[in-house]
DNA sequence: CACAAATATTTTAAGTTTGAAATATCTTCG
DNA sequence: CGAAGATATTTCAAACTTAAAATATTTGTG
């Protein structure tokens, strides 16, 4: 019964109105997401001489001050392992993060902010938040809450099945 | 400086609750967007042996059966000119689109679906819609409408100055 | 007409991203 | 112990992406 209401629901061989509404919703998410990401990328580049993916890694590490493994980073950011390797390489070259060995497991390493990385990110995060708030300045408090609620129902449905 | 409500509004030097709610909303948009895009990319790859960017180009051309210029394509998809060049090159190699000369302007070219491109896309679009509907199966009709409305207010704010 | 400016597209260099293969290390179990 | 499998990460090739430079063509102006 995972049948989507497409061919079964309505009688015709057209897809259903609900299916079309969901598609429109998805396309609108994509549109907003691209537009905002483009604006933020440009600001990052001009104001910080940096990039969004690097900011994302710094943000994750700022939340976990003791550092994270590469695998934790890639899971948290929902990007591939190989991807994180390259970003972290560049952040290491910039002196914003370090790779530390893990006691008892020489395969793994912990990535951690340096002092410079912490300081830089703390400053950038405030500016970043103000950029976002400006880009979303038409979003009222109640609409923000509604938006978050609706998007959460979508993410939860597609949550990775946790293996215990 | 063009200070947003951050430092000025509240009295403390913290950013405002509204600003934080907007940031959370943005991060949630990003999360859903990445998750869904990842799922769709995987399905495109496995089921169609293709990619999302190519699907996006085909979709744009399917809406404009007479074809589009490279610049129209890149504007419509909100990606750079150079980007579209590469995607179209590959679609040409696959025989799904063609580049046609433009009367009276030898700088430009029109990109148009071939018959094979039209046929392929028509089939894929139906399957794609059902994938999206499944991924959004927790999204009710009224929530879909609310989501679309809220996201539109955001896009409109950041709309490029229009020329219809 | 000549030639500067504008426009349409491609090329290029650098970075991001993926999925798969390769490495290195750890763990399990016969 | 030692091989087989599992796990953590990196490497690799291909594709995508951008911003900027280059190319080709058209348009506007004197």
Topology:
Two copies of one chain form a homodimer.
Chain A: H1 5-9, H2 17-48, H3 52-63, E1 68-69, H4 70-77, H5 81-93, E2 97-102, E3 105-113, H6 115-135, H7 141-157
Antiparallel strand pairs in A: 1-3, 2-3
Helix pairs in contact in A: 2-6, 3-6, 4-5
Chain A binds a DNA duplex (30 and 30 nucleotides) through helix 2, helix 5 and strand 3.
Please explain how this structure is put together.
- Two copies of one chain form a homodimer.
- Chain A has 164 residues and is mainly alpha-helical.
- Chain A has a domain at 51-132: Winged helix-like DNA-binding domain superfamily/Winged helix DNA-binding domain (Arc Repressor Mutant, subunit A, Orthogonal Bundle).
- Chain A has seven helices and three strands, in the order αααβααββαα.
- The first copy, chain A, has helices spanning 5-9, 17-48, 52-63, 70-77, 81-93, 115-135, 141-157, and strands spanning 68-69, 97-102, 105-113.
- A three-stranded antiparallel beta sheet of chain A has the order 1-3-2.
- Chain A is globular, with a radius of gyration of 20 Å.
- Chain A binds a DNA duplex (30 and 30 nucleotides) through residues 38, 41, 45, 51-53, 69-71, 79-87, 90, 102, 104-109.
């Amino acid at each position: 019964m995972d049948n989507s209401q497409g061919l079964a629901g309505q009688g015709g061989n057209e897809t259903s109105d609900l299916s079309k509404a969901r598609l429109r919703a998805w396309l609108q998410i994509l549109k907003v997401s691209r537009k905002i990401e483009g604006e933020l990328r440009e600001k990052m580049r001009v104001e910080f001489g940096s990039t969004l993916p690097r900011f994302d890694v710094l943000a994750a590490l700022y939340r976990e001050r003791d550092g994270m493994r590469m695998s934790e980073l890639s899971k948290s950011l929902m990007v591939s392992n190989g991807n994180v390797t390259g970003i972290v390489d560049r952040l290491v070259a910039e002196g914003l993060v370090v790779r530390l060995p893990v006691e008892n497991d020489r395969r793994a390493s912990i990535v951690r902010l340096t002092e410079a990385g912490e300081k830089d990110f703390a400053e950038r995060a405030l500016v970043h938040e103000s950029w976002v708030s400006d880009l979303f300045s038409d979003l009222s408090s109640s609409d923000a809450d509604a938006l978050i609620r609706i998007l959460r129902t979508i993410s939860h449905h597609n949550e990775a099945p946790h293996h215990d």
